[in-house]
């Protein structure tokens, strides 16, 4: 039975095509890791939203404590991604990632990609 692979695609930040290079990094991983990866993606979104709402000129929509809590959760999830072997450097944590399932669509949307080795580490999934 073939293992199903899904992908994280760098869309902004250090590992994107607009970051340190001209290629969008793509991280293939075992779909069984998706519950863990989804926690990271949720933390990434919540952190980005809280930053935006905190820094709206003349009207803070969230307080500093809430912003710090969301950012701390985000960094905890980045550590979890490193522990799983999905992230391998600090630059991955300074990147916004998009979850995608179809490699052909990724290649259409992002003409220049750098594919990493697939992550199969499922021992921590439970």
Question: Your description of this structure?
Answer:
The protein is of the alpha+beta class and 126 residues long. The protein has one domain (5-115). It has helices at residues 34-54, 64-84, 90-93, 103-109, and strands at 5-13, 24-30, 95-100, 113-115. The chain has a four-stranded mixed β-sheet, sandwiched between helices. α1 packs antiparallel against α2. The radius of gyration is 16 Å and the shape is globular. The two termini are 21 Å apart. The mean pLDDT is 92.
Which structural traits does this protein have?
alpha+beta, 126 residues, 4 strands, globular, 4 helices
Helix-strand blueprint:
Layout: E1 5-13, E2 24-30, H1 34-54, H2 64-84, H3 90-93, E3 95-100, H4 103-109, E4 113-115
Parallel strand pairs: 2-4
Antiparallel strand pairs: 1-2, 1-3
Helix pairs in contact: 1-2
């Amino acid at each position: 039975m073939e293992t199903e692979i899904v992908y994280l695609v760098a869309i902004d930040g250090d590992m994107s095509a607009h970051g340190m290079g001209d290629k969008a990094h793509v991280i293939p991983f075992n779909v069984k890791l998706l519950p863990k990866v989804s926690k990271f993606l949720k933390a990434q979104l919540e952190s980005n939203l809280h930053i935006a709402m905190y820094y709206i000129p003349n009207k803070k929509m969230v307080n500093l404590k809430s912003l710090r809590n969301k950012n701390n959760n985000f960094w905890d999830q980045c550590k979890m991604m490193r522990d799983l072997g999905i992230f391998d450097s600090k630059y991955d944590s300074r990147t916004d990632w998009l979850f995608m399932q179809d490699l052909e669509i990724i290649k259409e949307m992002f003409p220049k990609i750098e594919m990493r080795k697939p992550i199969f580490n499922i021992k921590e999934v439970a």
